[in-house]
Amino acid sequence: MSGIGVIAILRVQPGKEEEFEGVFAELAPAVRANEPGNSYYRLFRTAETGVYKVLECYDDEAAVAAHRASDHFRSIGAKLGPCLAAPPEIESMPAV
Predict the structure, then answer these.
(1) Structural domain of 20
(2) pTM
């Protein structure tokens, strides 16, 4: 079985956590509804204040590219930017 796992680490500015979580609550259902190549997309809050991880699973590189190019990711995802304290850290891994 092929596939690609992605972990995105997102560091949020102090006091912006609730806004960030609200925007993500719009984005996640849009990803699930509009991206057939995505099988998992979920936000997790870490033990470190203001640090979140997004766990994502895609069928292949084309599905990852489709996610990044999608209208919902570009429009809703753009609202996450003002909440972030640093650029996202992205790790991509092949499934085994």
Answers:
(1) 4-94
(2) 0.93
Exposed, middle or buried by CB within 10 Å (0-12, 13-18, 19+), for 70? middle
Q: Looking at the 3D structure of the chain, how many domains does it have?
A: 1
List the CATH number of the domain containing 76.
Answer: 3.30.70.100
Rounded Cα distance, 22 and 19, in Å: 5
pLDDT averaged over 10-residue windows placed end to end, the chain, 96 residues: 92 97 96 96 97 98 96 92 96 96
Q: Are 64 and 58 in contact (CB under 8 A)?
A: yes
| Pairing outcome for strands 4-11 and 51-58 | antiparallel
- What span, in angstroms and rounded, lies between the C-alpha atoms of 64 and 59? 8
